[in-house]
Amino acid sequence: MDMNLILPESYKKKFPFKIGTTSYIYPDHIVPNVKMLAPFIDEIELLFLESIPSGSIPAKNEINELHQISREHAITYNIHLPVDIFPGSSNYADRLCFVDTIQNIIDHTSKLSPSTYTLHLTYPDDLDKTRCDQIWQNNVYDSMEKLIVSGVNSKTISIETLEYPVEWIDGIISDFNFSVCIDAGHLLLKGYDTETIFKNYLDITSIIHLHGVKNGRDHLALDKLSCEETETLIKFMNGFTGTVSIEVFSFDKLLSSLQCFCSCYRSYKDVSKSPDPF
């Protein structure tokens, strides 16, 4: 890890929401990333993207170390749950594995008191993308029902907006009282009505993912959006007090994203005549 790659200033408590980023900004494991980032931001998105490979999820001693870092630097965590578990699978064993995996991760990380556990309700690649598959939807519903029956608190789970219309899972979110993760980059990439989605779901949103989008690619630096686009997203966040995670995966993208976001935030506040946190 290049120790010269350090953020030039702290962004802690500069906004009415927590500002954060991912645990993969430096090409190293989770704990070294957290040590580097903790002095500068409010919250870190711990990426547990794979459920099986050894080392993907921190060991107990690493969880203890993360807990100590959080106390020393007054940071909080959110956890992005694995994307290789499939609640909508037609295979019953896969759905049971999904429930067991979520339970185990929540138990394993309880000491960290995450602000939310973000979950993908992945839509299979081989299904028709123009309409919601009823069997998939029923399977997801069954899996989520089992998860809640197992004792998981639904409000600790934030369902992320993905490549399909969020309306496809609206009933699942409302019936089980889940919270939401609005991934603004995904919405922009697919051309969805971002304003309406923020309006309909912001009240039950725990976390917002921000990243740049350009030429069909996402998770780019925020400066790939125009300042007008970023200011519009900031406007849609009005009143939000949860977590805004800049979901990028390199130091350069994080630094340029934070600088861009601060500039656009300041510009928006100047126009709206609201107090400037800087």
**Helical content class:** 25-40%
Envelope shape: globular
Spans where pLDDT lies below 50 across 5 or more residues:
none
Radius of gyration: 18 Å
The total count of helices amounts to 9
Which CATH class is shown? Alpha Beta
Mean pLDDT: 95
Number of individual domains? 1
Strand content: 15-25%
Side by side, the strands of the main sheet go 1-2-3-4-5-6-7-10
Q: In CATH, what is the homologous superfamily?
A: Divalent-metal-dependent TIM barrel enzymes
Which structural class fits the helix and strand makeup? alpha/beta
Order of helices and strands: EHEHEHEHEHEHHEEEHEH
Number of strands: 10
Separation of termini? 30 Å
At CATH level 2, the architecture is Alpha-Beta Barrel
User: What name does CATH use for the topology?
Assistant: TIM Barrel
Described by strand count, sense and barrel closure, the largest sheet is: 8 strands, parallel, barrel
Give a structural overview:
The two termini are 30 Å apart. This protein has a single domain, classed as Divalent-metal-dependent TIM barrel enzymes (TIM Barrel, Alpha-Beta Barrel), CATH 3.20.20. The longest helix is centred in the last third of the chain and has 22 residues, at 251-272. Helix content is 39%, strand content 16%. It is of the alpha/beta class and 278 residues long. The protein contains 9 helices and 10 strands.
In short:
The protein has 278 residues and is α/β, with parallel strands linked by helices. It has nine helices and ten strands.
